[in-house]
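Quick one, tokens below. Sequence please?
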């Protein structure tokens, strides 16, 4: 018996809609990462993109536990001396709620070319509407 190795054309890419209203950030991010990677499919291959597209709506209504709103910090570096920038989760939620989910999911994906390609299949919107109705997405609970 030979080992089955999936081909690129074998991948069935579906679209899923996830509502972020009153859901915990980390737990939802793990579900999104599994769908993007395709680990919930029997034909999963770690070296290939076999995952689905994920649409997240109501990103501004996400919930976090504990004191993370005040204590969690996000950092970025401008490249200049003394150029480290920091923003709290609370401020980032007011400024760009989509970025909070994107960064959370990005940390759960592989840190290579496949991971960067997978992140392009994640569509995040802060309101309840999205422009992907033509793809006939399946609503996830």
């Amino acid at each position: 018996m030979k080992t089955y190795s999936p081909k690129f054309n074998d991948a069935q890419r579906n679209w899923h809609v996830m509502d972020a209203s009153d859901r915990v950030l980390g737990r939802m991010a793990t579900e999104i990462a599994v769908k993007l990677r395709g680990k919930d499919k029997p034909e999963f291959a770690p070296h290939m993109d076999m995952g689905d597209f994920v649409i997240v709506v109501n990103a501004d209504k996400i919930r976090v536990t504990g004191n993370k709103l005040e204590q969690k910090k996000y950092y970025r570096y401008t490249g200049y001396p003394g150029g480290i920038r920091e923003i709290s989760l609370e401020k980032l939620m007011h400024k760009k709620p989509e970025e909070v989910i994107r960064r959370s999911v990005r940390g759960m994906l592989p840190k290579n070319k496949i991971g960067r390609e997978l992140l392009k299949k994640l569509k995040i919107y802060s309101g309840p509407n999205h422009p992907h109705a033509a793809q006939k997405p399946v609503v996830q609970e």
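The chain is about 30% helix and 20% strand. The chain has one domain: 14-140.
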